[in-house]
Amino acid sequence: xxxxxxxxxxxxxARRGDPAALDRLLAACQPHIRRYATRHCLINDxxxxxxxxxxxxxxxxxxxxxxxxxxxxxxxxxxxxCRRLERRVFxxxxxxxxxxxxxxxxxxxxxxxIDLIHALESLPGHYREIVLLRDFEELTLxxxxxxLTLTPAAAKxxxxxxxxxxxxxxxx
Length: 172
Prior knowledge:
The chain is mostly helical. It has helices at residues 2-5, 8-15, 19-40, 46-60, 70-90, 94-105, 109-122, 125-136, 141-148, 152-171. The protein has 2 domains: 1-92, RNA polymerase sigma factor, region 2, helix turn helix motif (Rna Polymerase Sigma Factor, Chain: A, Orthogonal Bundle), CATH 1.10.1740; 95-172, Winged helix-like DNA-binding domain superfamily/Winged helix DNA-binding domain (Arc Repressor Mutant, subunit A). Helix 3 (19-40) packs across helix 5 (70-90), helix 8 (125-136) packs across helix 10 and helix 9 crosses helix 10. The longest helix has 22 residues, at 19-40. The two termini are 33 Å apart.
């Protein structure tokens, strides 16, 4: 998302309510959102994730605290949309997602960072490692499986379990 970092004046103008700047920002973001959604969403959900992310950006851009955080904020929105759409498809517990969203809304960014650090530290080493490889180093499941000498299915399963443990820690 380094190309988005060059858009800081456009982001700032869009935050102030400039409709032309908002249009330029959305046009610049869309390919990045699509690329990220392609990696993280089910194939049928990519277009929906892109559209929902763009709508969320329009609605919440003024709440963004710092322009420098825009790229990370945008990726977080895409990731959440992909997960939300996936849960809908597989019929997963929507109540748990609502509880997680409420929990996120009631904590400051600093409190979230601290809680996430504690949640990651509470994980057994093999779960912590796979979360760090996927979510921080942004490796694909295939790359993670090769690095950890696992099958892709085992890596996916381990990642899922690790994320579930983090979620349980955070909302418990």
